[in-house]
Amino acid sequence: MVGSASEQRIALVVAVAVVSSIVLAAAGTAGFLIGARTPRLDSESESASLTGGSIVISGVSRNNGAGVAHNVVVNATVDLSGTGPLAQGDGVRSVNLGDLAAGASKPYSVSIPVGDRNLGAGVRYKAAPSWDRPSLDVAELSFSVTYSGSHVIDNVTGKVKNSGKGPAPNVSITFTESADKAGQSVLGATTTKLGDVDASGEAPFKLAVDIGPNPPNDLYYGSTFSYDSAQVVDEQETERRVGGTLRMTGFVRNGGAVQAGRLVLSASLLNSFGTELASGAAKVGTLVPGARAPFSLTIDLGSSAAGDARWVRVTVAWEQTRFLILRESKSQSTREPVPVS
Question: What is the pTM of this model?
Answer without folding.
Answer: 0.71
